[in-house]
Amino acid sequence: MPKASEIKKNNTIVYDGKTCIVRDIERSVPQGRAGGSIYRMRMYDVVSGAKFDETFKDSDMLEMADLVRRPAMFSYMDGDEYVFLDKEDYTPYHLHKDSIAEEALFFNEETDSIQVVIVSDAPVALDLPMSVELEIVETDPSIKGASATSRTKPAKLSTGLVVQVPEYISTGEWIKINTEERKFQSRGDKH
Predict the structure, then answer these.
(1) How far is the C-alpha of 15 from the C-alpha of 38, rounded, in Å?
(2) What HEC string does 160-191 produce?
(3) Translation elongation factor P/YeiP central domain location, by residue (predicted)?
(4) Predicted confidence (pLDDT) per residue in 101-149, tens digit
């Protein structure tokens, strides 16, 4: 059983008898107190979809939930649901747009290395790769002679995500985005 300090975003834990996915973690160190950090975790119940916050000391022991990760690819939208197909047996996994609103900004039909998280035979979340490649659909014109260390400008990607990119990047280019930090990493390899 891991300590609260070892839990990462998108881990699935059993808390209060419910299977919960950790959506966000804020670490704070109380002033003037001996001891460790406090971890405030935003979680949601995979069965009911209810969201709640809970606070743990860094030494609190938490139980990891039994889950399966399946390699999948985004296939299409069906009303309010994203449909992913298992890469091995083509099983369709339906995830409601609200449950993966954050992740939806980082994938399209070409995104590789997506995993669907399954708890008790039900798809509950997505695990994204560390970086993804997306196309810039709108940004200011590139500036000739701009160096890699110069200023940045906002760029809107094909998924609707807006990130800061170096001035030498232009509309139509594919770039790598770090999914954890939501930041520009480099130019894309594929295109």
Answers:
(1) 17
(2) CCEEEEECCCCCCCEEEEECCCCEEEEECCCC
(3) 69-124
(4) 888 999 988 888 999 988 778 888 888 888 999 999 998 887 766 555 5
Report which DSSP code applies to 142. P
CA distance 116 to 70: 5
Record the tokens describing residue 119, joined without a space. 């708890």
Distance CA 172, CA 138 (A): 8
Cβ–Cβ < 8 Å for 7, 58: no
Predicted TM-score of the model (pTM): 0.70
Contact 9, 24 (CB under 8 A): yes
CA proximity to 168, closest of 190, 186, 191, 189 = 186
Distance CA 97, CA 23 (A): 15
Question: Of 105, 102, 98, which Cα lies nearest the Cα of 157?
Answer: 105
